[in-house]
Structure formats: C-alpha cells, structure tokens
Recover the amino acids of this structure.
C-alpha cells in the first residue's frame, strides 16, 4: 500500500514567480530557496534565494524589492517579502496540503519537488498547475511503500497523443494486436479503423514514440 508520492516538476517562465523573474533576467541559476512566515504578519511571507550569475544588476525588474543580504563566493543571496495569494506554483501545491520540499531555478525555468499523499492527490495538484502553467512538465514520480522500498512512477499525459493516435492504440489493444501471440495483425486492425496498414503503422509508431519519451530517461 502506497504511503506517499514524491513528484518533481519543471515549469517554464511561471507567472507570479519572483525567483525565476530575477534568475531569468541574468540567465543565472538558483540552487536553493527558503521561506519563513511571521506570526505578526500572517498574510505575508519572506523568501531568500541564492543566485549564481555572471553579473548582478543594481536592481531587478520585479514587482517586489529584492535586497542583497549576503555574498557567498561568486553567489549572492537575496531576500524579499511578498503577500500570500499571488497564485504562484508553490502556493498552488501547498493549497492541497502537500509540502514543497525543494525549489530551484535555471534561468526562467522553475523546478519544484513536493510530496503528494496519493495518486488522486497528485492528479489534483497537476491539474491545478496545468490550469495556471501551460508549460508544465512532470520530470519524475517516486512512490514510497510501507516496507520503505521505492517504486518509480511515470505520469503520462494523454493530451500529447492526437485523437487519431489514441484511437489507433485503443483499437489495437482491444483487438489483441499487442498480445503474444497476436490475436490480430496490422492489416486486421487497419481494416477495423478504415485505414491502410501503412497509415496504421505510422500512427502507431508516432504514438509509441511519445509514450516511450515519457517513460524512458536518457543521459544528455
């Protein structure tokens, strides 16, 4: 029985994110972000992030004031205070009572790691993120088990398949094309779909490539 899912997502140029706005403006990296709240001001949050860049401007084009607080080698640590309810990705996740455990950025791309209680909770979080961030990519899913083993999960977005590709996959699967031994050959599935065998194999290859790209990892 699963006891939780660890998810890593990538979001390009997220709205409402001060960190990626600052990092993107100097093409820098942010290896860590931390935040804290003040009981006397529960509607505001303070955040600090370390920025690694070739050069640092006197001011950043953000809607909050960034204050340099510490220099660490060639890196600078900045602090800012913002109001809650900006609708940034971290807040979208935390509204589901799922803690964000790691935040980093490469330029204007945000990387978030968070814990979801189960697959249903994960789907709710991903669904809300996609409503606000059209350029969301799920990088990795890891499910922990009660015996402390770990199981890699893959989040496959069916929307990457065209309607025709999905129909080809569903028909081929229903007719037993993927069974061993096959219960239907390519010509029989193609006849069922009303297309040629060549067209069937083209749609099938395209669909399989998209699915394999989603579930397999390669070193750069």
């Amino acid at each position: 029985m699963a006891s939780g899912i660890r998810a890593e997502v990538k979001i390009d140029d997220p709205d409402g994110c001060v960190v990626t706005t600052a990092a993107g403006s100097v093409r820098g990296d942010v290896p860590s972000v931390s935040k804290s709240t003040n009981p006397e001001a529960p509607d505001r949050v303070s955040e600090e992030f370390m920025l690694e860049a070739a050069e640092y401007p006197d001011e950043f084009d953000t809607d909050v004031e960034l204050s340099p607080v510490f220099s660490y080698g060639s890196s600078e640590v900045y602090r800012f205070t913002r109001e809650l309810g900006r609708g940034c990705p971290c807040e979208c996740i935390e509204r589901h009572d799922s803690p964000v455990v790691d935040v980093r950025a490469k330029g204007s791309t945000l990387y978030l790691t968070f814990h979801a209680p189960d697959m249903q909770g994960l789907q709710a979080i991903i669904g809300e993120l996609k409503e606000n961030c059209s350029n969301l990519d799920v990088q990795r899913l890891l499910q922990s088990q009660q015996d402390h083993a770990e199981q890699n999960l893959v989040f496959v977005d069916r929307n990457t398949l065209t309607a025709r590709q999905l129909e080809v996959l569903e028909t081929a699967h229903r007719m037993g094309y993927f069974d061993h031994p096959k219960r239907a050959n390519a010509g029989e599935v193609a006849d069922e779909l009303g297309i040629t065998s060549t067209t069937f194999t083209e749609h099938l290859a395209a669909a399989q490539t998209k699915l394999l790209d989603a579930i397999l990892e390669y070193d750069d």
Remarks:
- The mean pLDDT is 86.
- The beta strands are 2-12, 29-38, 41-52, 67-72, 75-83, 100-106, 109-116, 136-145, 150-153.
